[in-house]
Amino acid sequence: MPMLCRSPLGPDFHNNAGTVLPASPEDALWPARQTPIRLGLLVPFQGADAIWGPSCQYSAVLAAAELNRNGGILGRQVELFAVDAGGDPQRVVTRAWELVEEHNIDALIGVHLSSVRLALREAFAGVVPYVFAPLYEGGERTRGVFAIGDTPERQFPAAVNWLMKNRRAQRWFLVGNDYIWPRASHAVVRRIVSQAQGSVVGEEYIGLGQENIASVIEKIAKLKPDIIFESLVGSDCVMFNRAFSRAGLSRSIDRLSGAIEENTLLGIGASHTQNLYCAASYFSALNTATNRDFMSQYRAAFGANAPIQGVLSHSCYDAIHFFAKLSEGASSIHMSALCDAFDNRQGANQPAPIYLAKAQHMSFEILQELE
């Protein structure tokens, strides 16, 4: 039986497509209003990326509540329905179809792996608007799929050059999960390192959920690179970094990642984060007016012990606001109008800056905003 979660902030929230209950007495009047806009939230609750699923749920509820307090989207209140986007991509597609058909979903918001995105794209392109929020490999041009996340071309050049200059990281070893985003990221990092007269001395791919990585650790120990570039996600990233540290490699070899968000850092643990860097467009430690306001609203809504926010879960928050702005620009939530509005943005939604941060035990210290 599906579990129902009810938001303390206003929007109805349905975990695994639960039954609608009003979030407040006022919401009992909804049948007399316009039909709510229903967003299908595709976030992982199994697999390597499940580590950031709860944080995505909370940030999505906050975004929907903010919209609903200000009239919703096109004057219609927002409802959220969540379904598990972790695990086998085709099973995710099946779950998503059940959600869309049973609950008349108006749009999909996805924060999951690119391998899942490719499967969902084939199933829903041109049928249901689909906002893909997190960092990804780039190049998504499918009509009706709105990919808004950072790409390797934006995320890594300045960080790689900073580490080569300031940490004398000349010899690189690349390790990632075996799917499209890590492979694309490695291609970009290879080019940047080569252009800066560095070298890539080794490269390995680890299957999602693969537990035996002893040979990878042994190869790194033998080659003794200056730095590891990691394109590992979630629990696989936790496993690798613990093994790397326990092998005594973290004292002399730096690490750079674009996907170690705060939940993953907590999983790695304070004793395994020495010389660990991350380049991303969001960290919960950012001392900007925008982030101070976001974190204040988040803590006021959910308390100090709510799931920590990171670049992936924050992208879920951004995606819901993005869909609202796109809909307002299109004056519609119909596919053709949304696509036309997306094509005609003309410089709107400028990308966020990329920041370089260093792990300090189980939190990040922002070193600088990268150009």
Plain-language structure description:
The protein has a seven-stranded mixed β-sheet, sandwiched between helices. The chain has a seven-stranded mixed β-sheet with strand order 9-8-10-11-12-13-14, sandwiched between helices. 39% of the residues lie in helices and 20% in strands. With 371 residues, it is an alpha/beta fold. The relative contact order is 0.14.
- Indicate the CATH class of the largest domain: Alpha Beta
Radius of gyration: 21 Å
What is the CA-CA span between the terminal residues? Answer: 50 Å
What is the overall shape? Answer: globular
Share of helix, binned: 25-40%
What class do helices, strands and sheet pairing give?
A: alpha/beta
Percent range for β-strand residues: 15-25%
Q: Number of DSSP strands?
A: 14
CATH architecture verdict of the largest domain:
3-Layer(aba) Sandwich
Query: How many structural domains are formed by the residues?
Result: 2
> Can you summarize the main beta sheet?
7 strands, mixed
Overall average residue pLDDT: 91
The low-confidence parts are 1-11, 16-32
Number of discrete helical segments: 12
Please state how the strands of the largest beta sheet are arranged side by side.
1-2-4-3-5-6-7
Annotated CATH homologous superfamily of the largest domain = Response regulator
CATH fold call of the largest domain = Rossmann fold
